[in-house]
Amino acid sequence: MKFGDYVKVKSLKTPEGFRENLRALGLDMPCDDVVEAGAGSPLGAPLVVDGLRVGNRFAIQPMEGWDGTHEGRPSDNTRRRWRNFGLSGAKFIWGGEAVAVRAAGRANPNQLMLNDDTEAEIGALRDGLVAGHREAMGDDKDLVIGLQLTHSGRFARP
Description:
The chain is α/β, with parallel strands linked by helices. It has helices at 15-24, 76-87, 119-137, and strands at 47-49, 52-54, 59-60, 92-93, 98-100, 144-145, 148-150.
């Protein structure tokens, strides 16, 4: 396999298919046949990083949203997505979005932006996420939330 030959994850339908792909990549990595579930499973176990306790191993990574407003405010779709992040049960949510720090640094004209005018609405996204998490999990213990602030530099498309 050469660089650039990517296998679609959905094509790896069985643990053996996954192992075959690992072998083709020259990787020696163990793989269980069954994913354990529940609080006692490896993915359900808490993780402590630099003194910060994260309640489980599930994470929501930041993405570059395309559904904010032209002013950089969240839309109904953005609010729904962030609430769903909370409902997911993931305990490490590195912000649902890559949020621009200024208009000229936005990667697209609908990317969220954090400034004096949008600060309260960005904060409300967090509040909705935490409310969803409490609804799904009973509390927000060991929930860690971050926010990726970005400037797209020469790739900006404001």
